[in-house]
Amino acid sequence: MDMQASISLRHSGTNFRRVLEGILKAFFFLSALVCVFTTFGIFFSIIFEALRFFQQVPPTEFFFGLEWSPQTAIRTDQVGQSGSFGLIPVLAGTLLITLIAITIAAPTGLLIAIYLSEYATPRTRNLTKPLIEMLAGIPTVVYGFFAALTLAPVVRDAGRYFGLDVASESALAAGLVMGVMIIPFVSSLCDDVIHAVPQSLREGSYGLGATQSETITRTLLPAALPGIASSLLLALSRAIGETMIVVMAAGLAANLTLNPFDAVTTVTVQIVSLLVGDHEFDSTKTLSAFALALTLFVITLILNVVALRIVQTYRQKYE
Amino acid sequence: MNNAVLSQRMQTQLRRRHAAEKRFRWYGAAALCFALAFLFVLLATIIFNGAGVFIHKRMLFEVAVSEHHGDRYGAMIKDSWKAQFPEVTNRRQRRELYGLISRDAEFLLREHLAGVSVPDNGIVVLSVPFSGDAGEFLETDPEKRDAFSERLSPEQRGWLERIEASGQVETVFNKDFFLNADSREPEIAGILGALIGSMLTMCVTFLFSFPIGVMAAIYLEEFAAKGRLFRFIEVNINNLAAVPSIVFGLLGLAVFIGLFGVPRSTPLVGGLVLGLMTLPTMIIATRAALQAVPSSLRYAALALGATPTQALLHQGLPAAMPGIFTGAIIGMAQALGETAPLLMIGMVAFVADIPDGFTSASTALPVQVFLWADSPERGFVEKTSAAILVLLAFLAVMNSAAIYLRRKFEIKW
Question: Which ipTM did the prediction report?
Answer without folding.
Answer: 0.88
